[in-house]
Amino acid sequence: MKKLLVLILLFFLLFPLYSLEGEAGVSLGVLGCAFAFDVDNYDNYLYGRIFDFAYQLDNGWGITASPFIIHFNIADLSQYSFTFVNLSLFYNFFKSIRSKFFLGPFVSMNAVDLNNPVFIEFRSSINFRIRSIENFFNQSDIFNTDILLVELGYKYNKNNRHGFYIQIGLDLLLALGFLVDENDVREYEREQTWR
Q: pTM for the full model?
């Protein structure tokens, strides 16, 4: 119950940021794959972030929050993590959240895992994104679509040691779009016009 209250509080604390000097953005999330490695071990995993809230000042500094991040080990799907507190501090060299590109360093913290409530992980990375904001909404809206995301970085947590990683992801809408057959969409549209 306390976790839910913290998430609701975080949700309502982020929305007033839209009225401050700077720009706010909301994304449905990202789905992707990642490769992590250290001296004697490597892991491949699938990951997903659901709902990204971002606020960026005019000088390029910003914060992001995501209430849900999940990681599945590709070799053993029973090994997974589902974190509820996911915060990042970043700097965007392009200085606009509405830019088609994003490039900059990130410092992130992921905490409160479903299986281990005291879990905490720190990440430091460089992040590159290709964005499109015209796909679904006008430029005046606060919605962002990260078409492609590439992240190179270093992570540390007490459970899984530390190591370098690379993540490659697609916007949630785009990733789910690959699963939908275009002919099924056309057939659905034809059925709707006959009604």
A: 0.71
Looking at domain 2-194, which of 3.40.630, 2.10.260, 2.40.160, 2.60.40 is its CATH number? 2.40.160
Nearest to 87 by CA among 60, 104, 111: 111
Q: List for the chain the helix, strand, coil content (%; round to 5).
A: 20, 50, 30
* Spatial separation of the C-alpha atoms in residues 145 and 30, rounded to whole Å: 9
pLDDT digits (tens, 9 = 90+) for 1-16: 666 666 665 555 554 4
3-state secondary structure of 118: coil
CA distances from 31 to 60, 65, 117 (A): 25, 16, 24
Q: Give the β-pairing of 68-73 and 42-56.
A: antiparallel
Residue 152 and residue 181 in contact, taking contact as beta carbons nearer than 8 Å: no
